[in-house]
Amino acid sequence: MTTTTPTAARSGLPRGIWVLGFVSMLMDISSEMIHALLPVYLVTVLGASTLTVGFIEGIAEATASITKIFSGALSDWLGRRKLLAALGYGLAAFTKPLFPLAPSVGWLVAARFIDRVGKGIRGAPRDALIADIAPRGLRGASFGLRQSLDTIGAFVGPLVAIGLMWWTADNFTAVFWVAVLPAFLSFGLIAFAVSEPEPEPDPSREPAGNPLNLAAMRQLGTVYWRVVAVGVVFTLARFSEAFLILRAQNIGLNAMWVPAVLVLMNIVYALSAYPAGVLSDRINRTGLLALGLVFLACADLALALLPSLGGLALGVALWGLHMGLTQGLLSALVADAAPPSLRGTAFGYFNLFTGLALLAASVIAGALWDAYGPAGTFFAGLGFALVSLMGLLAVGNGLAAEDK
């Protein structure tokens, strides 16, 4: 069982954790302002096909997932996290002006690609840096806070974009220029307001320069790979939030209000992630993960059986609650299980495998939707959630032994 020491509880979270949370929030505001409008901009202004939009998004997300594992391992080899995290945020910030300046689809493809490379570079080193800064008894709260602030950015960005589009009479370029500002504020914060602690001594472990090194994979340990397995199974039960939007359209929600689905989900997510992280520092993390799966199962049930506005709102809110109870906690479990000298590599592997699982889950969900309709998709999600819950209970003792 995880406990928080009295000294840690009194002192609160380190300043660096708060700063990294605001770094994530500002960059997410910037990115979501652009990403919320980019598909429409590509199709209506630049004349791109929907196939092109899908290709751009697929390449972008795959690039981010693959880059994370190499940047994580490099941060272990260097023994420094901040340099790579700042490089990733800086690359994303300096790419943002390309979006309003891009004269063609090709330029936007390049901008999106570089932006996602920046995300991939910063992801694993930033999470490892949080694990390095956070006291062991406050890791759940630390990852929960970062997740909450990041998720605030995920719904503030689209809301700001909607307001600016109304104010500027649908001037995409003006909105893209405004999005540049929070990106550079994010980069400035991590560059000048975050201090990296000295690496923890770990004489029994040798850092690995190659993320595909089998010796490094073995050094990560059995408990770590159990956490990865749990994360992958969790992700298979949680397909893309795009299907929440499709369900909203399916029940007849006006297109103007469809984005409110993700706003509601992210508000619940943001409000629950930090309290869940704090609670996980006081009780067994696996118990909260199990509760998160119960909420996911209930969300799937509501979305399958209640094809109404009230049913949609209930399902989306429960979905957000599940995210808040699980995503930060999984990161905390990775930090708990990984050796200090291999934390970057550990987060890289975790992000890679869960990213591939999300892709597989979304493909399966789409195929089921085409074959059996939305009820078939959400009933399958319910089944995956229940199987995941049984798997978590089966390996829970091993995770709980490390979660202390």
From TrEMBL:
<feature type="domain" description="Major facilitator superfamily (MFS) profile">
    <location>
        <begin position="16"/>
        <end position="400"/>
    </location>
</feature>
<dbReference type="GO" id="GO:0022857">
    <property type="term" value="F:transmembrane transporter activity"/>
</dbReference>
<feature type="transmembrane region" description="Helical">
    <location>
        <begin position="174"/>
        <end position="195"/>
    </location>
</feature>
<dbReference type="Pfam" id="PF07690">
    <property type="entry name" value="MFS_1"/>
</dbReference>
<dbReference type="GO" id="GO:0016020">
    <property type="term" value="C:membrane"/>
</dbReference>
<feature type="transmembrane region" description="Helical">
    <location>
        <begin position="223"/>
        <end position="245"/>
    </location>
</feature>
<feature type="transmembrane region" description="Helical">
    <location>
        <begin position="312"/>
        <end position="335"/>
    </location>
</feature>
<dbReference type="InterPro" id="IPR036259">
    <property type="entry name" value="MFS_trans_sf"/>
</dbReference>
<feature type="transmembrane region" description="Helical">
    <location>
        <begin position="375"/>
        <end position="400"/>
    </location>
</feature>
<dbReference type="InterPro" id="IPR011701">
    <property type="entry name" value="MFS"/>
</dbReference>
<dbReference type="InterPro" id="IPR020846">
    <property type="entry name" value="MFS_dom"/>
</dbReference>
<feature type="transmembrane region" description="Helical">
    <location>
        <begin position="36"/>
        <end position="56"/>
    </location>
</feature>
<dbReference type="InterPro" id="IPR005829">
    <property type="entry name" value="Sugar_transporter_CS"/>
</dbReference>
<keyword id="KW-1133">Transmembrane helix</keyword>
<feature type="transmembrane region" description="Helical">
    <location>
        <begin position="288"/>
        <end position="306"/>
    </location>
</feature>
<protein>
    <submittedName>
        <fullName>Predicted arabinose efflux permease, MFS family</fullName>
    </submittedName>
</protein>
<feature type="transmembrane region" description="Helical">
    <location>
        <begin position="257"/>
        <end position="276"/>
    </location>
</feature>
<feature type="transmembrane region" description="Helical">
    <location>
        <begin position="347"/>
        <end position="369"/>
    </location>
</feature>
<feature type="transmembrane region" description="Helical">
    <location>
        <begin position="149"/>
        <end position="168"/>
    </location>
</feature>
<keyword id="KW-0472">Membrane</keyword>
<keyword id="KW-0812">Transmembrane</keyword>
